[in-house]
Design brief:
This protein has about 70 residues and is an alpha+beta fold. The protein has 2 helices and 4 strands. The protein has a 4-stranded mixed β-sheet. InterPro entries: DUF1107.
């Protein structure tokens, strides 16, 4: 499990895209799981987790488009 000390969507997206499957923790926000290069729906269903999930997944799509 990777622990990110702060929320930086670009760094997190690069990590998710590179490792493809695993878990991560963002200090102050919480834990996330990712598979197939995308953050999965969080088990905690609050708005902050959903916003982080969608923003990081958008960043992953942008990275894929740049390297395709």
């Amino acid at each position: 499990m990777k622990i990110f000390p702060s929320y930086n969507p670009q760094r997190i997206a690069l990590y998710v895209k590179t490792l493809f499957r695993g878990r991560l923790y963002i200090k102050g926000i919480g834990a996330f799981e990712f598979d197939m290069g995308k953050i999965l729906l969080p088990k905690v269903g609050d708005k902050i987790h959903f916003n982080v999930m969608s923003e990081v997944n958008r960043e992953v799509q942008e990275l894929r488009a740049q390297f395709a």
